[in-house]
Amino acid sequence: MRKLSSLICVISVALLLMLLLLVDASAAANRGSDDELKLLVLKKGDLSVKLTNWGATVVSVLLPDRHGKLGDVVLGFDDLEDYKNDKSYFGAIVGRIANRVGGAKFTLNGKTYKLVANEGNNTLHGGKKGFSDVLWKVRKYRPDNVDSPYVTFSYSSFDGEQGFPGALDVYVTYTLLDGQRLSVTMRGHAKNKPTPVNLAQHTYWNLGGHNSGDILSNTIQLFASRITPVDNSLIPTGKIISIKGTPYDFLLPHTVGSRINELPHGYDINYVIDGHSHHSSKKVAVVHEPKSGRLMELWTNAPGVQLYTSNMLQYTKGKGGYVYKKHAAICLETQGFPDAVNHPNFPSQIVTPKKPYKHVMLYKFSVK
Question: Which residues bind beta-D-galactose (predicted)?
Fold first, then answer.
């Protein structure tokens, strides 16, 4: 009897080990090799998100409208290979420093670092080959996690990449939560020396559907009463000014197009979030699309949010052959202030081996 019990125990352990090996093999198959371009899908209820490891990019977000009809509400491409040649940063994680660095240089601890300039004399979104233009590793992919399906991407940036100091490991995790919520958590760990880090998620949103035209009739509210004004090259002057009495005032809801003609090209400015705290998230924006009824709330722990109305889009062929034109989407890029490395009065973006970087975003979708 004892021998039979022992045999059953051994068989049970063997079966358990085989099951674990099968699970690991399945997960590895989902991840694929590190140098392979992949499409990954997360689904929870009516919310479905597709992502790729190129640039840790959001490829599509499917949401129901007020009638329950699903629609893809982000701009992008059908073919993943097209993201490799994308100049608009559709859906990507941008860095090592998102937004702009004036003169493509900064000084840290007495040493001046010259970056790769890719927008005139300035650096935009990390340089000619920033984090949006590299293949990230799929660290964990749990699409079958019932409570919160997620995927974690990682990228190791070497010391001197695009001119930035220090080796840096970065991670981004996309998670679907109850209540039609999408969580984005970005982390950075400096490995050997201080370095600036400012990651941003650069999805182009059109809640009417990616192929529904412009977003000028969308209503937007921003919980920010100040901006960091810029010069003609979109580099911050270093000032922080009130938006009161200007076209930038969205403290009360207004349509995007209500005052856009008062600006030279459209909105492309960093807002200073009211009541910001690194230790807790604040609601920073609400966007409502009247025809579909879709509504998006955005929460973050970042100090700023860039409102960009896709002013530079010019006849870009996207999903289904649809052509994206100027003002085809809204970008809400939560972030540290642009060019903070050159403005001591802006919140610091310097991380060290003992002081890591953490940036969280939460999108909540509903219908109205």
Answer: 99-100, 202-204, 268
Q: Is there a binding annotation on residue 324? A: no
Listed range (3-7, 23-27, 55-59, 326-330) with the worst mean pLDDT? 23-27
Burial of 183 by CB count in 10 Å (0-12 exposed, 13-18 middle, 19+ buried)? middle
Helix or strand (DSSP H, E) at 141: strand 137-142
SS3 of 43, please?
Answer: strand
CB 48 within 8 A of CB 40: no
Residue 359 annotated as lining a ligand binding site:
no
Residue 295 φ then ψ, to 5°: -135, 140
Q: 185 labelled as ligand-binding?
A: no
Q: Tell me the pLDDT tens digit for each residue of 202-250.
A: 999 999 999 999 999 999 999 999 999 999 999 999 999 999 999 999 9
Residue 98 neighbours by CB under 8 Å, 6+ apart = 125, 126, 198, 199, 200, 202, 333, 335, 336
Task: Provide the residue type at 359 as one letter.
Answer: H
**Phi, psi values for residue 24, rounded to 5°:** -65, -40
Q: Is 202 an active-site residue?
A: yes
Catalytic residue among 161, 288, 327, 333: 333
Q: Provide the pLDDT for residue 33.
A: 60
- Determine if residue 204 is labeled as part of a ligand binding site: yes
Q: Which DSSP symbol is given to 26?
A: H
Alpha-carbon distances, residue 156 vs 134, 135, 184, 346 (angstroms) = 10, 10, 19, 27
**Which of 202, 276, 343, 359 is labelled catalytic?**
202
The verdict on whether residue 202 carries a ligand-binding annotation is yes
